[in-house]
Every structure is written in structure tokens, then in C-alpha cells.
Amino acid sequence: MLKVLLERRSIRKYKDDLVESEKVKQILGAGQLAPSGKNKKPWEFIVIENREVLKKLSEVKPKGGTFLEDAPIAIAIVGLEANSDTWMEDCSIASTFIQLEAENQGLGSCWVQLKSRFTKDGEDAEKLGKKILEIEDEKRLLCVISIGYSNQKKIVYKEEDYVEVEFKTIK
Ligand SMILES: Cc1cc2nc3c(=O)[nH]c(=O)nc-3n(C[C@H](O)[C@H](O)[C@H](O)COP(=O)(O)O)c2cc1C
């Protein structure tokens, strides 16, 4: 586990290689295993492979999302707000599980935030993303996780980053 945590970095450049469907299944399975308030699992995942849709999503997020255009796939994390008051926390954990399993599968990933973000024209990025992905009004679109084989070199975290955390102990 520590190896995965140390080696995971946000990857924003990808090779053209396709992501095997078996790996996608395992990544989604990891998301489904995430803990959630009252075990409600208030999320839905949408796997986006369509190039046109990925391009449209990249335009929604000119800051920190343009790379979606070249990502082999992305997984949209949809929150079922009406089902749980902890949907945001739950969906964030599911997103993290997805990213960690992607790393475990030898893939790079990056979180692209849509909730509380805006397009270059000041439009609500979540609202626009929901329209592109045809998500029902009552559901939320937290983020989109881009996934693919990394085409960039990034320095991995070191064990010192892990052990040198300062903390207080209450005895
Ligand atoms: C809640 C959240 C929102 C993020 N939003 C974006 C985003 O919109 N675009 C992006 O390129 N990266 C985004 N990131 C990735 C962070 O920039 C990245 O995790 C951080 O800089 C640390 O780098 P690392 O992931 O390589 O450790 C987001 C991460 C989180 C957890």
C-alpha cells in the first residue's frame, strides 16, 4: 500500500494506449469499496471514452482540465445528494480509491474538480458538465478523474515525506 501511496502523482499527460477494460472494471470496483456515511454509497460512476465528450469536458475546465482532451478515458464521479448528507465526503473517498487503484494498475490519473468551479466565461462548470454528460438535475457532479498510461516523468514521494509528519498526541 505504501508503495502505491508514494508513487501516485497527478498525471496530466498520457500515452495513446487504450486502458484495458479489465483494469477499468477493477478501478470501478475499488471505488465501490470506498467507505461511506451509513454505507449509503451515494455515487454513480460514468466511464467516458468518447473523444468528443472528453473534448467538450476539457473546454469546461480551461484551468486544470484541458488535458482531458487527450486522456484515454475519464471517470465522472456523480453524487446522489438526495440520498445522503455526506455525499461529498463519500464521493471524495471513492474518487481517491479510484485514483489509488489506477496507480496500482500501473496507470496515471488526475482529479479534475467541477463542483464549485467555473468556465472562462464564469459559467458553473458542474452545471455545464452535467449537461454534457446528461446527468439528471437532482444529482451532483463532483469531479472527473482522467486515467491513462503516463507520458510524463514525475518525482515520486519519498518515505521521509511519509514518516516526517508532525503530530500532537493527547494522552
Ligand atoms: C479536491 C481536489 C481537486 C483537484 N482539482 C484539480 C483540477 O481541477 N485540476 C488539476 O489538474 N488537478 C486537480 N487536483 C490535483 C491536485 O492539484 C494535486 O493532487 C496536488 O497538486 C498534489 O499533487 P499530486 O497529486 O501529484 O500529489 C485536485 C485534487 C484534489 C484532491
Features:
4-stranded antiparallel beta sheet, 4 strands, 171 residues, 16% strand, alpha+beta
Protein described:
35% of the residues lie in helices and 16% in strands. The mean pLDDT is 96. The protein has helices spanning 2-7, 21-32, 51-60, 87-104, 125-132, 159-163; strands at residues 43-48, 73-79, 108-113, 140-148. The protein is globular, with a radius of gyration of 16 Å. The protein is built from six helices and four strands. The chain has a single domain, classed as NADH Oxidase (3-Layer(aba) Sandwich). Helix 2 runs antiparallel to helix 4 and helix 3 (51-60) runs antiparallel to helix 5. The protein is an alpha+beta fold and 171 residues long. A four-stranded antiparallel sheet has the order 1-2-4-3, sandwiched between helices. The protein binds flavin mononucleotide.
Order of helices and strands: HHEHEHEHEH
What multimeric state do the chains show? single chain
CATH fold label: NADH Oxidase
From the helix content, strand content and strand pairing, which structural class follows? Answer: alpha+beta
Query: CA-to-CA gap between the ends?
Result: 29 Å
| Helical content band | 25-40%
CATH class: Alpha Beta
| Overall pLDDT confidence | 96
Low-pLDDT sequence parts: none
